[in-house]
User: What shape does this take?
Amino acid sequence: MIDLCVAASAASLVCIAGSTARRSPQAWIPAALMTVGMVVASVEGVPASLVLLVAAVNIFIAAPLSVLRSGRSAREVGMQIHRALSAILMGGLLIVRSTSGGLAHSDVPGLGSHHGMASLGAALGVAALCAAGYVVFSGWLAARTARQHRGRAALFTVGDITAMTAAVIAMGVMT
Assistant: This one.
C-alpha cells in the first residue's frame, strides 16, 4: 500500500510538470515534500523522530508555502487550498502512523490507559471526518476544473488533484 502512496505522490509531481503551475515553487515544493514524506514512511526502520520531522515540515512549511501568494484565478486559489490541505493531512497521517504502533504498551503517560486509547479514538474520528471533507472538496475541485477549463493544463490539474487525493486516502487506509 505504501508503494501506492509513493506512486501517487510522484504522479502529482508529473502532473505539475505538465500543468500551468510548472514554474511555481508554491506547487513544486509542497508536492516534493509530500513525496519525501511518503518515501520516508515507506522505509522500514526509519526513526520515528525523522518521520515526525518530515510531518512537521509538511504542516509548517509546505502548507503555508502553498498559499503564500494569492492566485490570479479561482482555479489557482482552489489548488493552493487543496495543496495546503494535502500537506496538513499528510503530515497528520504521518504523525499518527509513526506514533500509533504499540500505543497500548506505550511509555507515554496516559496512552497505555483506557482513557488514552479513548482519546486516540476520538482524535482518529476527527481525522476521519477531516479526510472525508478533503475527499469531497477534492471531487468538487476536480469537477469544477474539468467543467471550466479545457485542454492539457486542465487534464494535468485534475490529475494532480486526483493523485494527491489518492495518496492521502492510501495513507489514511494504512494508518
Remarks:
- The helical segments are 2-18, 25-42, 48-66, 74-100, 114-148, 152-174.
